[in-house]
Design goal:
alpha/beta, 2 domains, Rossmann fold, 397 residues
């Protein structure tokens, strides 16, 4: 079987690019021939340029095309429409990383719109939303199958795109097989080691984590000496370093202002992929304090998951997360705790629980390890391969 994958791929720095790279390798390991005809390119949203890119690829001998949708990119979405027009014989499937929408803005806007003030551009996107949604529904109906990474994401996608139940399949985020490592010395014998892991920019709720630790310090003055915090992950220069001081600097200043100077805080920025397991396994728990965008709420419900959650399970580490996205579902296996997004007092209570009851860490970490084993990429690739075979055979009958 020969599958073409259309997706962002490394060296691009994004969660979907990392996912797609691992996915391609897992399919290849499962005796599936994988080609990536657009590797090294960014699919254009300009119709003529996109057409040239798609025509330059060799589509002969391809049994099925699979597309990764999400991350604010529209090129892959427009590629689906190109294939529907020019290669209607090819079955096309897609993993939708940010349901309940395929895209969150018009697929193509005139170039001059990028010069609009942000509030005007956002108003334009909102005004055009009914047309965008109608376009998405037509595109979704043309696909042979859609995949979401969570159950709630699949339900939301089916409802918003008006799809039959059998059109959307739920296949969890895969993870690497990583040898288990025992937890560090538990609180009482050593500090509680907290890790934020992911891209570091505004909107990830890192400020809430700092504020929660400050609340805990007010209630338990000795807690800063009993906790070690690591902020780790990728940075985006256009976000992290602005005109009024870098975002990283603003986080450092917030730590000082909240009276956390005594707390051990480490920074691990832009770490290599092969360093991630050791980073996670030297900590007790991952904290993901995400906040959902109020602006996106006008357009739909983002019910995707996070690559960081997948890494935590693979490494046998539990998670404390907000109830943003589909995190509540992903942490419903005994592998952590969920609190209402933006509720810093609730987050402080969850951290305090781990200081007071270290045995909770042991139970949750074991549940995370079992979850990670069930989602190893070999298992996930087998589910995709089964779906691909069924849909490719259907297209030839």
């Amino acid at each position: 079987m020969r599958i073409a994958i259309l997706s962002p791929l490394p060296p691009e720095q994004s969660g979907i690019a990392d996912y797609a790279q691992a996915f391609c390798q897992a399919l290849a390991d499962a005796d599936t021939q994988v080609v990536t005809p657009m590797r090294g390119q960014v699919l254009s949203v300009e119709p003529e340029q996109l057409s040239r890119q798609m025509q330059s690829a060799d589509w002969q001998g391809i049994d099925l095309v699979h597309v990764e949708l999400g991350g604010g990119r529209n090129g892959e979405y427009l590629a689906i429409q190109w294939l529907a027009r020019h290669r209607p014989d090819l079955p096309v499937t897609a993993t939708v990383h940010d349901p309940d929408r395929l895209i969150w803005k018009p697929a193509h806007l005139p170039g001059w719109t990028k010069w609009l003030p942000a509030i005007v551009y956002q108003a334009l996107v909102l005004l055009l939303n009914p047309l965008t949604l109608a376009n998405e529904r037509r595109t979704a109906a043309r696909l042979a199958g859609l995949v979401t990474l969570t159950r709630v994401g699949g339900e939301c996608l089916r409802e918003r795109m008006r799809l039959p139940e059998d059109k959307v399949r739920i296949i969890a985020h895969g993870n690497a097989r990583i040898a288990p490592v025992a937890l560090p010395a538990l609180p009482g014998s050593g500090p509680l080691k907290l890790l934020y892991f992911g891209f570091i920019y505004r909107g990830k709720g890192i400020e809430d984590l700092i504020d929660a630790l400050a609340i805990l310090a007010e209630n338990q003055p000795d807690s800063p000496a009993r906790i070690e915090l690591t902020l780790a992950g990728g940075t985006k220069p256009d976000v992290a370093f602005g005109h009024q001081g870098g975002y990283l600097d603003s986080l450092r200043q917030r730590l000082q202002e909240r009276g956390l100077a005594r707390m051990s805080v480490q920074w691990r920025l832009d770490i290599a992929t092969d360093e991630i397991p050791a980073l996670i396994q030297t900590h007790h728990v991952m904290v993901l304090p995400y906040r959902e965008s109020a602006k996106l709420a006008w357009l739909g419900r983002m019910r995707g998951t996070s690559g960081a959650l997948s890494w935590a399970a693979a490494c046998g580490r539990s998670v404390i997360a907000s109830d943003a996205r589909a995190f509540a579902e992903e942490i419903s296996y005994g592998n952590g705790a969920v609190y209402p997004q933006g509720d810093c007092h609730a987050l402080a209570k969850e951290i305090a629980l781990l200081l007071a009851s270290p045995d909770v860490l042991v139970r949750r970490s074991e549940a995370a390890r079992k979850l990670g084993e069930s989602r190893e990429w070999s298992c996930i690739a087998a589910e995709f391969r089964q779906m691909f075979l069924r849909l490719a055979q259907r297209s030839t009958t």
